[in-house]
Automatic annotation (TrEMBL):
Gene3D superfamilies: DNA helicase RuvA subunit, C-terminal domain, Vaccinia Virus protein VP39. This is Release factor glutamine methyltransferase. InterPro entries: DNA_methylase_N6_adenine_CS, HemK-like, N5-glutamine_MTase, PrmC_N, RF_methyltr_PrmC, SAM-dependent_MTases_sf, Small_mtfrase_dom. PROSITE patterns: N6_MTASE. CDD domains: AdoMet_MTases (cd02440). The gene is prmC. Substrate binds at N182, P183, P184, Y185. It catalyses: L-glutaminyl-[peptide chain release factor] + S-adenosyl-L-methionine = N(5)-methyl-L-glutaminyl-[peptide chain release factor] + S-adenosyl-L-homocysteine + H(+). It comes from the Bacteria. Methylates the class 1 translation termination release factors RF1/PrfA and RF2/PrfB on the glutamine residue of the universally conserved GGQ motif.
Length: 276
């Protein structure tokens, strides 16, 4: 296996992949189905063929986690589908902000709502940390809802999670203690400038936030205040430089900024809102 990895690294480097060594190892692990690689062991024919196919796909620009079909988020495993955004470490900031805001309430019988749930990573991560909570994930894609339901089962929270196809909060009723969302926030004109990995492999539905990237937030400002329980709050992910605009939009809906959290790169990534 050491030799297989050694030969793979220059192939990936030639394709412009900076972390060629790491990705070669990840793809090799995926090919043999284990992280416990024996460097001295030779690949069997089936694993060698799988590995060669993985390398070809990665060199063509397909992200490594798409090839492997799953990615870790919040220490949990989430399976991907073409209809779901690939969970990214920066989005863990939403979970961190929500848990910090909940504080001691994490042990209560909370009602959670995740809009644009995708893989279900936000809702499943929160349910894993809030053992008495129940949650609803909503997504415009039926395929995404199926993927999220599978991930809830995979991570042991299926009994407390439900998923439904829908457009944001349309048709919802009830009172939620926490609403989270990582909505599409990239302006339409900027989609073409994204990396190949994102532009050609993440679903457009999860990327395109309209002409200025703020379309979903305007919908949230109109629809979410009525869905909050007393003491409830909202946590959104935002793009770089969008804070002031999002705060103004939420203020028009009667919501005020209660805090924010920075991602690994030092950018304000998660904003917390509650009724003014």
């Amino acid at each position: 296996m050491r030799e297989a990895r050694r030969r793979a690294v220059p192939i990936l480097r030639a394709a412009g992949i900076a972390a060629a060594g790491l990705e070669a190892r990840l793809l090799l692990e995926g090919s043999v189905g284990t992280r416990a690689l024996d460097p001295e062991r030779a690949l069997d024919a089936a694993a060698a063929a799988t590995f060669a196919g993985y390398l070809q796909r990665r060199a063509a620009g397909e992200p490594v986690w798409r090839i492997l079909g799953e990615r870790e988020f919040w220490g949990l495993t989430f399976r991907l589908s073409p209809a779901t955004l690939e969970p990214r470490p920066d989005s863990e900031t939403i979970v961190e902000a929500a848990l910090a805001q909940l504080g001691a309430r994490r042990g209560e019988n909370l009602s959670l709502l995740d809009l644009g749930t995708g893989t279900g990573c936000l809702l499943v991560a929160l349910l894993s940390e809030c053992p008495q909570a129940r949650g609803l994930g909503v997504d415009l894609s039926e395929e995404a809802c199926r993927t999220a339901a599978g991930n809830a089962m995979l991570n042991g929270v299926a009994a407390r999670a439900s998923f439904r196809k829908g457009s944001w909060a349309e048709g919802l009723a009830g009172a939620f203690d926490l609403i989270v969302s990582n909505p599409p926030y990239i302006p339409t004109a900027e989609i073409a400038t994204l990396s190949t990995e994102v532009r050609e492999h993440d679903p457009l539905l999860a990327l395109d936030g309209g002409a200025d990237g703020l379309g979903p937030y305007r919908i949230f400002a109109r629809s979410l205040p009525a869905l909050l329980a007393p003491g409830g709050f909202i946590v959104f992910e935002i793009g770089a430089g969008q804070k002031n605009d999002v705060v103004a939009i939420m203020a028009a809906g009667g919501l005020e900024l209660r805090g924010s959290r920075h991602d690994l790169g030092g950018h304000e990534r998660a904003l917390i809102f509650a009724p003014a």
